[in-house]
User: Fold this.
Amino acid sequence: MATQRTLIQSVSRALALLDAVGGSARPVTAKCLARQSGLALPTAYHLLRTLVHDGYLAREEGGYVLGDRALSLAGGRAVGMHPAHAHQVLEHLRDELHAPAYLSVLDDGEIRLADVADSRSCPRVDMWVGFHHAAHATALGKAVLSTLPDRARRDYVAAHELADLTPHTVTSPPRLLRELDSGSDVALDREEFAVGTACVAVAVPSPTVAAAVAVSVRADQLGRVLERGDAIRRAARLIAYAGAGERPDPPVTI
Assistant:
């Protein structure tokens, strides 16, 4: 009883809302959050406004998502979390954009494909060349490299041959480094890995794991996916919050 009397009810309610948003792979409406948390709708709205104002939540079309402050607090959880939540996020991204979704990570100095959510109607790209030889030609690889300090990025490029995979592949180290240093939060593969295929990737905003989320489409569908870049950013934020930066065990067969 003494412990219960010291609890601050509004804090517990706010944390319940954060948990509900963090556990969803898509934006959640205020009405849904109020129902899940057992709160009156006016109370939920009041708490949600406060959480958005303080940066713990953000308002997007369709509902609420985690904000930057919640993600920064979650950074320390990035290693060791079960990958099931990450796969759920990828599946939702696949269904939302009608395109296969991917997660890559930097693992012991190499960029690896960690997970894929595809389907018969959204088949994955044929990874005919492993990431060890092709990260420079993929949006996933570029997004991961863009998270590294300048020296580490240069060391990676110097240690890996930039194989010429298609007529569009960037094989010049200075040109690749300039692209990685562009400041854009979106990495692109315009038929650089496979002719006829484009890919859009966003780095997972984690201070402890270098990872990226991407979708691939036919090259003529690139504009459609770029218009939905917020969906890829949201997926990357959710994976950061879940601490799902580690690759599954066993790793994906490609």
